[in-house]
Amino acid sequence: MVLNANRKPMLDGQECETSGWDMGNCPVRDVLDRIAGKWSTLLLEALARQPYRFGELRRLVPDISQRMLTQTLRDLQRDGYIEREVFPTKPPSVEYRMTELGRSLFEPLSKVLQWAEANHPSVKAARVKYDESELA
Amino acid sequence: MVLNANRKPMLDGQECETSGWDMGNCPVRDVLDRIAGKWSTLLLEALARQPYRFGELRRLVPDISQRMLTQTLRDLQRDGYIEREVFPTKPPSVEYRMTELGRSLFEPLSKVLQWAEANHPSVKAARVKYDESELA
DNA sequence: ATTGTTGGTCTCAAAAAGAGACTAGCGCTA
DNA sequence: TAGCGCTAGTCTCTTTTTGAGACCAACAAT
């Protein structure tokens, strides 16, 4: 399905097919598809504050399933945003902490989070307006 | 219908306050869950540049299905990020354009996109490293 | 008369996510 | 000592979401 596999990346991006913009072969997509998951941002937000253990994260985000917690943490680890350390205690405990790469990502990301918090009322208002006009 | 019907009950009595932080009933989540979709950012990025018509967007993002394009555009419209205008031409054409709210969101969001572009190599490297250690 | 274009919707299959049971070794306790 | 819970997960099953593609109606050009 990689239609644009061998076109120029959008680095300086003037030369691509549709008004100078290659959507298919985009590094931004490759990175963003991972952090755009439903739980990724939430976990990054938590781990930006402090390290947490698996069970702590599970309690912190009450409506995540263990399955998705494991999976999301592993994805974030694979992309280098968080680290996983196992302590060989009696019941072994695992701690997750943010890496430097993760922190550098979280810097711009937290701005979006702040925007979301600040503009939540506007978005809710827009939804109401839309739903009313749809009702007609 | 399925799309707009998913308003979550959002258990208001339940609090999961951990170190002064409510994860469950978070406005940030409410907003972010919408723009964190696979295609949302891509479409916002396109419409931040200029207005586009339905078919133009479909061609611009070659691997999106019409179904998801319709759905994502409608979500973005409902949350007030984009506007939809129908021109009653013989084959009626529809133009999508970004609103002011959308632009104000895209400002911090574009920073994340820039980060993604700049740090794509680091992320790829992290993946390679992880996959190698997994291989053992 | 056929083909193509417009912006969708509809159906069905595939993929992803959610729910919950199950694991193993240890500590506590009844 | 049998039972229970704690740890961090995995495994399976069901439900939800997504993807692929057919279909629509009116009109324009071939």
What's the SSE blueprint?
2 copies of one chain form a homodimer.
Chain A: H1 27-35, H2 40-49, E1 52-53, H3 54-60, H4 66-78, E2 82-87, E3 93-98, H5 100-135
Antiparallel strand pairs in A: 1-3, 2-3
Helix pairs in contact in A: 2-5
Chain B binds a DNA duplex (30 and 30 nucleotides) through helix 3 and helix 4.
Written description of the protein model:
Chain A has helices spanning 27-35, 40-49, 54-60, 66-78, 100-135, and strands at 52-53, 82-87, 93-98. By secondary structure, chain A is mainly alpha-helical. Chain A has a 3-stranded antiparallel beta sheet with strand order 1-3-2. At the A-B interface, helix 1, helix 2, helix 3 and helix 5 of A face helix 1, helix 2, helix 3 and helix 5 of B. The structure holds a DNA duplex (30 and 30 nucleotides).
Q: Main traits of this protein?
A:
homodimer, 136 residues, mainly alpha, three-stranded antiparallel beta sheet, 5 helices, globular, disordered N terminus, DNA-binding
